[in-house]
């Protein structure tokens, strides 16, 4: 790598609390007090960097805004030198990963509004006006949409355009009841305050989904703007192609994993309510013995099925509530569930349910012992059925008690933070 000219850059001091491996290089013609920050990860992009810096400056000039360009660079070529020569700040960050780059850059972002993207000149940063207008209109999170804008022929592989992006976007919209059209678009905007509160953790491709998912959890005021998506510049090979044929599939799975993790409540709360309702409907009416409806006799085996479904459903409901609290940025969901499950009342209710269950199963045990360790006589039918109901009450009481402990322990965790 060619050495950088001392006339082009100076190394700024950094607070001791920051990663000592990070090094900020500032150009001589640095912008003071920028309103916008264009923050871009870069890995060996010397081919497109000069053109990209020019596009960013043209885009800010057209939009009439004062902004900085911050390149988060992990390159081994002349990317950083060229970016610095073009007037961009360069944050030298040895740790690789798109998500890691945005995490590392946060302490160095000076603008109130942040625009993210790639420096390969596939996103047209000459057209920043829509982002600026949305930000000035009060938007906190802005997604670019290639599908609502322009996709240059040959710029997006058919696998991405017709399968990967549409399917994963649809999955996210179903899980979160959102209305995005292009969740994998790398050109997006967010206010600096929202980015700080978001607390990104993803190190790699999944940052894109994490950012979208957390914007939904945080209930950010979100907008979409159409953008132009262009082919790679001649001589450049995309990072996916550099990584091999499996890279797009790996990225898709990583993003799906993020969706499922942050959308855990979708798979737990409402399905749990359904399972618990069906299970209770099968089990409770049979507590006093078999029932016959037409050609079907609902007996002990149906009751055991109901016990299984009701137990599984109850646990899913409680886990779903906890999942909602884990991703509750506003605090409103947490307050609602704390009001519905106050500690003392919930524990007393759990104890009552547990005691009822013990009484019913205890009756079954006593009957079993006093009748020669047998439960196969006709008189034992009702005792058997009540015993199954008692088992469910015992399980439900204990699960409700442990749920109350976990629910209210979240308050301790929040307090410690």
Rg over CA atoms = 29 Å
Main beta-sheet strand count, sense and barrel state: 9 strands, mixed
Number of beta-strand segments: 11
Instruction: Detail the poorly predicted runs.
Output: 1-16
Count of structural domains: 2
**CATH homologous superfamily caption of the largest domain:** Spore Coat Polysaccharide Biosynthesis Protein SpsA, Chain A
Describe the secondary-structure layout:
Blueprint: E1 9-11, E2 23-27, E3 36-42, H1 49-63, E4 67-73, H2 79-85, E5 89-92, H3 98-105, E6 113-116, H4 129-136, E7 141-151, H5 158-176, E8 188-191, H6 192-198, H7 207-217, E9 222-229, H8 239-243, H9 247-262, H10 264-283, E10 291-293, E11 296-298, H11 300-326, H12 332-340, H13 343-370, H14 380-416
Parallel strand pairs: 3-4, 3-6, 4-5, 7-9
Antiparallel strand pairs: 1-2, 2-5, 6-8, 7-8, 10-11
Helix pairs in contact: 5-9, 7-9, 10-11, 11-14, 13-14
Overview of this structure, please?
The protein has 417 residues and is of the alpha/beta class. It folds into two domains: 9-262, Spore Coat Polysaccharide Biosynthesis Protein SpsA, Chain A; 264-416, no CATH class. The protein is 52% helix and 14% strand. It is built from 14 helices and eleven strands. It has helices at residues 49-63, 79-85, 98-105, 129-136, 158-176, 192-198, 207-217, 239-243, 247-262, 264-283, 300-326, 332-340, 343-370, 380-416; strands at residues 9-11, 23-27, 36-42, 67-73, 89-92, 113-116, 141-151, 188-191, 222-229, 291-293, 296-298. α1 links the parallel β3 (36-42) and β4 (67-73). It is elongated, with a radius of gyration of 29 Å. Residues 1-16 have low confidence and may be disordered.
């Amino acid at each position: 790598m060619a050495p950088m000219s001392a006339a082009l850059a100076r190394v700024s001091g950094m607070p001791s609390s920051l990663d000592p491996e990070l090094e900020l290089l500032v150009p001589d013609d640095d912008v003071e007090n920028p309103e916008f920050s264009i923050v871009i990860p870069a890995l060996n992009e010397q081919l497109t960097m000069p053109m990209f810096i020019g596009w960013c400056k043209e885009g800010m000039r057209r939009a009439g805004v004062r902004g900085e360009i911050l390149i988060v660079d992990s390159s081994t070529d002349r990317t950083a030198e060229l970016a610095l020569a073009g007037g961009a700040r360069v944050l030298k960050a040895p740790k690789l990963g798109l998500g890691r780059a945005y995490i590392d850059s946060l302490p160095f972002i000076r603008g109130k509004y942040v625009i993210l993207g790639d420096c390969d000149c596939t996103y047209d940063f000459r057209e920043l006006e829509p982002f600026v207008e949305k930000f000035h209109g009060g938007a906190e999170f802005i997604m670019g949409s290639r599908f609502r804008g322009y996709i240059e022929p040959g710029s997006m592989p058919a696998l991405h355009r017709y399968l990967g992006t549409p399917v994963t976007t649809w999955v996210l919209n179903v899980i979160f009841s959102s209305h995005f059209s292009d969740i994998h678009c790398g050109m997006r905007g967010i206010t600096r305050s929202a980015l700080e509160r978001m607390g990104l953790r993803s190190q790699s491709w999944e940052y894109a989904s994490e950012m979208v998912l957390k914007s939904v959890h945080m209930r950010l005021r979100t907008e979409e703007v159409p953008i132009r998506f262009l082919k790679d510049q001649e001589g450049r090979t995309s990072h996916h192609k550099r990584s091999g044929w499996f890279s797009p599939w790996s990225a898709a799975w990583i993003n799906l994993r993020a969706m499922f993790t942050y959308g855990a409540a979708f798979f737990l709360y409402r399905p749990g309510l359904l399972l618990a309702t069906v299970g209770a409907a099968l089990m409770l009416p049979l507590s006093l013995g078999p029932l016959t409806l037409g050609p079907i006799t609902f007996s002990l085996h149906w009751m055991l099925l109901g016990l299984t479904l009701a137990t599984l459903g109850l646990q899913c409901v409680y886990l779903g509530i906890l999942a909602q609290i884990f991703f509750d940025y506003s605090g409103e969901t947490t307050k609602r569930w704390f009001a519905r499950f106050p500690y003392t009342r919930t524990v007393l209710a759990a104890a009552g349910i547990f005691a009822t269950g013990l009484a019913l199963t205890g009756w079954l045990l006593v009957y079993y012992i006093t009748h020669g360790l047998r439960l196969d006589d006709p008189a034992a039918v009702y005792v058997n059925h009540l015993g199954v109901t008692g088992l469910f009450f015992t399980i439900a009481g204990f699960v409700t008690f442990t749920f109350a402990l976990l629910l209210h322990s979240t308050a301790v965790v929040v307090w410690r933070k």
